[in-house]
Amino acid sequence: MTIKAPNTTNQNESCTMKGLTVPLIHRRAVLALGALAASGLARSQESEGVLRLVVPFAAGSTIDALARLIANKLPEVSAHKVVVVDNRPGAAGILGTSYVAKARPDGKTLLIQANGLTTTPAVRSDLPYDLQKHLAPLTLLGLAPYGIVVPGDARFQTLGELFSAARASGQPITFGTSGPGSQSEFVLAQVAKAAKVDFLKVPFKGQADILLAVMGGHVQMAMINMPSAVKQAADRKVKILATMTERRTPATPEVPTLTEAGIAGISESAWYGLLTTAGTPAPALEGLSKDLLTVLGLPDVRARLADLGIDVVASSPSQFGDRLATELRRYQVIAKEENIKAD
């Protein structure tokens, strides 16, 4: 019996399709090209109208909640029917911010950030981006005031009493901060200078951990956002000795401002804003800004922001840009004067 081996080297091997004879290798190439084209078309259709909202912090934080609120509402008022929240935590927000700074400037990659965007450049010269060159402001979403708090069972009723006791004992006051270069460290430097009191910085990962440390008596003092402070003060777990606002707040009319408590010239709030990649065409910037302002005007969005303790600002891109530039210069001056460093 003769067995004929199959020809495995014939480059003209063919198959028949609907009566036509097509070289098999050509058919495979056509199929591959067709699949590639279909894939590209699918990706094009999939990406059309899709926005990526980068959160440079872990899920579960206040800023993450803000991002998800915006992502859920933006499709209702804009052509962007899908908004993907992309958490990219790491290096105190630097990794996620760098990702947006280096993204394609097409208006499809957004960044939600907070005060660290201006405090970090004031103490670090090795950032992989330049705030004013690589990012374009869209809107300042809102502000959340801070309060100065102590443990609920502390014997001090005023900041003056706390500072007097510290001076008399010669011991520093332990103060919870969010780490090197954070807004809390800038505030601490200013308070220490004005009150002529020594502090011992105790770093934590964030506000939630700081608040727990104050409630547990592990630190003597901290700067906490007012909604959280008011809630815990109502349960007598902390005392609010002063607010870092220009006027007393409606929620705590009995609590003096920091100026009234004897520390003038310091008014700080947490802020939250949205930016995109610099170089994005003006029409895209204008469209994004308009859509975001529409979202911030929705009654249910404003109600949710109020629940989070955030006062809506909804600024224009130029107003937000001016605030960023002014704040950066101010923190740079403070960092130099008070020798604040990232490490």
Structure write-up:
By secondary structure, the chain is an alpha/beta fold. It has 12 helices and 12 strands. The chain has helices at 24-47, 62-77, 94-101, 116-123, 131-134, 159-169, 183-195, 207-215, 226-234, 282-296, 299-307, 317-338, and strands at residues 14-17, 20-23, 50-55, 82-87, 109-114, 135-151, 173-177, 199-203, 221-225, 238-243, 269-277, 311-312. The strands form 2 sheets. Strands 3, 4, 5, 6, 7, 8, 9, 10, 11 and 12 form a 10-stranded mixed β-sheet that branches. Strands 1-2 form a two-stranded antiparallel sheet. A hairpin with a 2-residue loop joins strand 1 and strand 2. Helix 2 crosses helix 10. The longest helix is centred in the N-terminal third of the chain and has 24 residues, at 24-47. The radius of gyration is 28 Å and the shape is globular. The model is unreliable at 1-22 and 29-46 (pLDDT under 50).
Mean pLDDT score: 86
Instruction: Tell me the major beta sheet.
Output: 10 strands, mixed
Q: Which class do the helix and strand fractions yield?
A: alpha/beta
User: Outline, from the CA principal axes?
Assistant: globular
Residue windows where pLDDT falls under 50 for at least 5 positions: 1-22, 29-46
First-last Cα distance: 84 Å
Number of helices: 12
Radius of gyration: 28 Å
Q: Percent range for helical residues?
A: 40-55%
Q: Which H/E pattern describes the elements?
A: EEHEHEHEHHEHEHEHEHEEHHEH
| Percentage of residues in DSSP E strands | 15-25%
